[in-house]
Amino acid sequence: MNPANHRLTNRSMAFVLAGGRGSRLKELTDSRAKPAVYFGGKTRIIDFALSNAYNSGIRKMAIATQYKAHSLIRHMQRGWNFFRAERNEYLDILPASQRVAENKWYLGTADAVTQNIDIVDSYDVDYVVILAGDHIYKMDYEIMLRQHVETKADVTVGCLTVPRLEASAFGVMDTAPDGKITRFLEKPADPPGMPGDPDKALASMGIYVFNWKFLRELLLEDAEDPESQHDFGGDIIPDIVAKGTAMAHKFDDSCVRHSPDAPAYWRDVGTVDAFWRANLDLTDFIPDLDLWDTEWPIWTYSESVPPAKFIHDEAKRRGSAVSSMISGGCIISGTEVRNSLLFTGVHTNSFASLDHVVALPYVVINRRASLTNVVIDRGVEIPEGLVVGQDLKDDQKWFRVTDQGVTLITQSMLNARAAALG
């Protein structure tokens, strides 16, 4: 028998929860859901969860969408259309579509699965891996599935260690020495510390492994409970912790690293500051997240664009980039680029300078613009001579400036500025 047939991922499906807005990303999610936000030069955030599933061996996937899903669905259709039913491969997009009642959208993360029980049934799988579609990491789900089966758990929860004061944004858990979860608190205001390390907390990654038959019955019971919020973190997981066997799986055990001593890389890029920082981390000499790894690639939609081009070689008008990532289709014309990440199709013009800039696709930066510590939304045209990052009080008049001094620029902000200045 082929050893691949013994892989648990062959008997599993991935159910990706991708309906959230991600409001802390502010204007970056005005027209797209958080999982559809661009990341890393050419990918989208959701590509990481999907690539992890695909690289782990999972060939049946479903993606539940809700908030402003058009760009996300279009990305799925363009970049993830290689699944073939004749090979028993499936990728279904499941928009909130009033399948249960005309006034009932997805009420919570668990309800998103409940409303699609018939579709999951049609996959004929033994295990379901529930994934959040909005985090940046590399992970082999086969390892987590093995632990789930070996420990005979009702649910296995992916978890990581975070600073205690940052844990209020997560589900937080206490565990016994054998890894059994003894307490689970969803987004507590005062997270409990870990035994022996009170400054750290054990946080849920929003990754859960279930036996499908067990989860199916649990979801049907939850749907009938008028007191439930129909949420995995708020209802389903705490109920299993209280009545059954919930096991913690440490991300450190299944993280895919570029070298044995590399740190376990996981990021929630849910704020403008975190988004800016995680993108610029990729420009490090040896980044903790390896996008060059051909053994665990991040799959995505690749546009057909020419290579990046650098033109002009004169004093103060030299097309150059240092400690930066420049994507295909970019033209760096007489611009100095430092410590920056430019997505597909960015065009810059003479005498401009960019320092610690994240520019999303098809941005145009006109002459003599000087930008420092900036995130620029897709398709924005930066006017000639605009200076951002040197006077934060002035920047705050027109743009969104974060607590850490990063400026977010959108086209509507520039239009408002132009109208006010006449």
**Protein structure class:** alpha/beta
Query: Any idea what the radius of gyration is?
Result: 23 Å
Number of strands: 29
| Name of the top-level CATH class of the largest domain | Alpha Beta
Give the number of helices. Answer: 10
Largest sheet: number of strands, sense, barrel closure:
9 strands, mixed
**Oligomeric description of these chains:** single chain
The named CATH superfamily of the largest domain: Spore Coat Polysaccharide Biosynthesis Protein SpsA, Chain A
- Could you tell me how far the N terminus lies from the C terminus, measured between alpha carbons in angstroms? 74 Å
CATH architecture of the largest domain: Alpha-Beta Complex
Topology at a glance:
Elements lengths: L11 E6 L20 E2 L3 E2 L1 H11 L3 E6 L4 H10 L10 E6 L13 H6 L2 H7 L3 E6 L3 E2 L3 H10 L4 E9 L7 E5 L5 E6 L13 E12 H12 L8 H12 L2 E5 L15 E2 L4 H10 L27 E3 L1 E2 L2 E2 L1 E3 L2 E2 L4 E3 L2 E3 L2 E2 L4 E2 L4 E7 L4 E2 L4 E7 L4 E2 L4 E2 L3 H7 L1 E2 L5 E3 L1 H11 L1
What keywords describe this structure?
alpha/beta, 2 domains, 422 residues, transferase, 9-stranded mixed β-sheet, Spore Coat Polysaccharide Biosynthesis Protein SpsA, Chain A, 27% strand, UDP N-Acetylglucosamine Acyltransferase, domain 1, 10 helices
